[in-house]
Specification:
Layout: H1 2-17, H2 20-35, E1 40-43, H3 47-61, E2 67-68, H4 74-84, H5 89-96, E3 104-108, H6 121-132, E4 136-141, H7 147-151, E5 154-157, H8 166-183
Parallel strand pairs: 1-2, 1-3, 3-4, 4-5
Helix pairs in contact: 3-8, 4-5, 5-6
Length: about 190
């Protein structure tokens, strides 16, 4: 029980430290996207890809915002990775989706990308492309010095309070925060079943 108690205590402490102003900034970007009839493109790899898929469902069904994630189509995603390269997989998918100014990139990532260390270069290149064509961006990440935290229009950084559990905490908090955002009265349009 010691680990169970300490892990749950860590979760509580991390949630207590989340930047409420940054959460409000992400919420504002989401509201503006819906008001402009824009689409949300959720980008994530690994566990964050699963969170992106879940977010697509919720933002479409609960908030009535057209939403997508490239990793939901594993055939196209893997073909692009194989044929065009890992670093461009998101950019090329976004180009095919005709990403436009009214849309929003929503990054879900533990590190947020780092070109120098070759970590999630696909996320970095997608953010660079979005900025180039004047598309807004936001994220939920676990590294304040990662590319997303440094370059997105708004980014919720999950505090690195417990270095041994960064990945599980960040990916768990991503889900908590996506549920918070889609349940917010200013976004929620449809009731959930339960």
């Amino acid at each position: 029980m010691d680990f169970v108690n300490s892990y749950l205590k860590e979760c509580n402490e991390i949630i207590a430290c989340l930047d409420r102003k940054e959460i409000a900034s992400v919420l504002e970007l989401l509201k503006n996207t819906r008001d402009k009839s824009g689409r949300i493109f959720f980008l994530g790899i690994g566990g964050s890809a699963a969170n992106a898929s879940h977010a697509v469902n919720d933002f479409r069904k609960i908030a009535n915002i057209e939403s997508y994630t490239p990793t939901d189509n594993v055939s196209e995603f893997s073909a692009r990775a194989n044929d065009e390269g890992w670093s461009s997989v998101f950019v090329e998918w976004l180009k095919s989706s005709k990403l436009k100014e009214n849309d929003l990139l929503f990054i879900l990532s533990v590190g947020g990308g780092d070109l120098e260390k070759n970590i999630s270069p696909n996320i970095v290149k997608a953010l660079q492309y979005a900025k180039e064509i004047k598309v807004g961006s936001c994220g939920i990440v676990g590294r304040k010095n990662g590319y997303t935290a440094q370059n997105a229009d708004a980014c919720i950084v999950v505090p690195e309070l417990y270095p041994n559990h960064i990945t599980p905490h960040v990916e768990s908090i991503q889900s908590v925060l996506c549920h918070l955002l889609v349940s917010h009265p200013s976004l929620k349009k449809n009731a959930t079943k339960w």
